[in-house]
Specification:
This protein is mainly β. It contains no helices and 9 strands. The chain has a single domain, classed as Jelly Rolls, CATH 2.60.120.10. Strands 1, 2, 3, 4, 5, 6, 7, 8 and 9 form a 9-stranded antiparallel sheet that branches. β6 and β7 form a beta hairpin. The two termini are 14 Å apart.
């Protein structure tokens, strides 16, 4: 395990972490003017662990190989290459495959704990 932002034997309130947001690049905006923010917490081997959030709106993305737990909020993730949509909310565990083209539509500000593989 490499250096962590959060020290060992410690509790971190993931919902209370302040994340600095930036506007989603124009070429990824689908609806509204969404913003995103993230904080990398550390890594285990080659896997990165962090917190990411998105404001209300919709954006397109191409995914990394990732597992995440939704901490708060509600969204749908349209899997463009598969022609189906995932509905996600607090408590859900999600796995996305690298290279998957998506559209994230966030109805309530979404925060997740992610592990990229």
């Amino acid at each position: 395990m490499s250096e962590w932002l959060i020290e060992g034997n410690h509790v971190t309130a993931l919902g209370a972490l302040a994340l600095e947001h930036v506007r989603v690049p124009e070429d990824q905006q689908v609806d509204g003017a969404p913003t995103t923010g993230y904080l990398e917490l550390g890594s285990v081997g080659s896997a990165e662990v962090g917190v990411w959030e998105m404001s209300v709106g919709a954006m397109s993305d191409t995914e990394a190989d990732e597992v995440f737990v939704v901490l708060s909020g509600e969204a749908t993730i349209e899997l463009l290459d598969e022609g189906r949509t995932l509905s996600i909310s607090a408590g859900d565990l999600v796995r996305l495959s690298a290279g998957t083209r998506t559209i994230w539509s966030v109805a309530a500000p979404l925060r997740k704990l992610y592990i990229t593989l």
